[in-house]
Amino acid sequence: MKNFLANQKYQIIVIAIVYFAFRINNAILVKPFFDEFDSPPYFELKFFPSFRGHGITIFYSLIKNEFVITIFQAAVGSLAWIFLWITILGLIRNKILKYIFTFLFFILAISSVIVEHDSALLSESLAISSTVFVFAAAINLYLRENIYLQNAILTFGLGIIWFLSTKSSNSLLLPIIGVIYLIALYRFCSLKIFIVMGSVFVILGTFILANSLSSDITKTLTTSGTINNRLVYVDEWKSELLTSGYPVNALAIWKEFSESNLGLPPDQAVVNMPEFKDWWKDGGKSYLTKFTFRNPDYALIAPVAIPLFSQDLTYKKTLLSGWSQGTDLTLEYSGSNNSLLSRTFYWPDEAEKAYLALSISLFILGISLLMLTKFGQAKEFNLIILTILLTLIWSYLNWWFGSKPVDMARHNISAAIMFKIVALFALTLSFDKLFVRVKKM
Amino acid sequence: MNQTKIITSIKYLISSLIILSSVYIFVQVSLPLFDINKNEVDKKKVIGMTQSVPLEFDNGEIFWWLVRNENILEFHNSSDENIKGNIVLNLQSNPCDYSEELEIKSVNKVIKVVIGAGKTTNVVIPMEITHRSSNVVSVNFTNKEPCFVKNGDKRNFGAKLISWSFE
Q: What is the number of domains present in chain A?
C-alpha cells in the first residue's frame, strides 16, 4: 500500500478518479436547473441557421434526458480539468511544487462557481470545459517536450472547433484563433497535412461562425438592455442616441417597468413599442455596433471602468465584476440544496473581496511574468500573454454586444476562470524555474 | 539596442502593466467597497420585507394591520454586499382612535414610539444587514387597552403599517 501511494502514476490515477467521482456525485445530488427562456433552444438540433451552437445542441438533442445531460456535463468537465492538470504537471520539475500546485488546482476545480454549471441546462458547463480543454491542448502543443506532435495538433484543432461551437461569442474569435491554429499546423506538420487539416478546419470554423452570425433572436432585447443600462447615463451618449431617432418615451417606459412588476421585463416592454420597432427598421439594428466604433472611449475604457464616465454607474456594470465574482446557483437555486459545493477562497461572495481576489490574481500573474522574462522563458510568456489577450478580446465582445448587468457574471464566467487558471499556471512555472536556478547555484 | 533587448523591454512593460492594473483594481474598485456606507447595488432595490401579518389593499394601495400580539418584520438583503441604512416605517394609529405606544426591537436596539390618535408617524430604525442574510424587527404594543372592531374581524388591532422603505 505504501509503495502504491508513493508511486506518482498511481497518485495521479487516484486523484483523477476522486475528482471525477466528486463531480458526478454532485450532479446526481442537484436537481437539474432548467431556464424557461434559455434552455429550450439547446434541445433543438438545427443544421443552419441554429440559434444555439452545435457544440451544445448535438449533445442535448441526442441525450434528451435532463438528468443524464447533467451527468454527461460533469463527466466531460472533469475530464477536461484532469487533462489540464496532467498537462501542467508534466511541466513541473520540483516535486514539492507538484503537490502544492495539485492542491491549489483542485481547490479551484471543485469550487461551486465552476462545478455548479454541470447541473444547469445551459451552455456554460460545456463552454467552460471546452475553454479549459483548448488551453490544455495549447500547453501540450507549445510547451511540452517528447509528445506525439500529430496527436497534439489534432487535439488542439478538435479543441478549438469544440470551443468555437459552444457559444456565439466563442465563434467570434475564429479569425484570431483560426490564424493561430493554421500557423501551428504550418509550423509543426508537413505540407500535405497542413492542406488537408487546414481545409477541414477552415470549412468547419467558417460554418460555425456563419451560423452564429445568422441569428439575431435576442439582438433587440440586448440593444434595449444595453441602451438603458449604460448609454442613457452619460449625457453625450444619450444625446447621440436620441439624435438617431430613438424614441424618447422608450426611456420612460423602461423606468416605469423597472420600478414595479408590470408583467413584462423592462427590455421586453421597450422592444414591444411600435416606435422602437420603427427605429429598429430605420437603422436601430446596427446602432450599437456603429456607436461602439464611433466612440473609442466607450469601446475600450467603459468595459472595465464605466464609472469614469458617470457617477451613477458602478463597477458592477463592468467586466471587472464579471471576472471577479462568478455565478451563484448554489445560493440562488433551491434545486442546489443538496450540493456539496462551496465558493472556496478563489471566489469570495462579497463584492469588495471578490475584486480583491481578482486584483491578487492579476498581481500574481504580473509578478510571475516578470520572473519568466527574467529567466528567459519566452515560449511560456508568449503562451500566457496570448491566452490573456484572447480572454480580453472575448470578454470585450461579450460586453459590447451582450452582457447587461444581470448576466455580467454568467456571460463572463469562462474569462473569470481563465484569469485564475492562468495566474496559478504562471506562478507555478515561474517558481519551478526559480527552484531550478537556485539548485544550480 | 538590439531586437532581443527591445522584446525583453516590451515583456517587462506588459508585466508591469498587469501589475499596475491589479493595483488599480485594488485601490479604485475593491478598497472603497470595504466602507460599509458605500455600495455598488441600489440599497432600495435589494432589501425586501416579509411579515407575520397578511398584506391588505385599500383602493389599490397596500398596507398591513399590525396586531396586538407580537408582529415580526423580516428584512432580507438579497445582494452580495453588506448594507447599512435606515428602515423607515410609516405607521398610522389604530381604528379605535386612541394613541398607541410601541416597542420596536431590532438587533441590539429597542425603540419606543408613540403614535397619536388619528396621526401618522414615521419610525426610523437604523440597520446593518450583511450580504444574503436577514434581520428581524419585532413590533409590540405596550398599552394594554384592546382595540376590536364590530364588523366580525376578530383581530385585536394595533397600528396600520401603510408603507416602508430602506434609505
A: 1
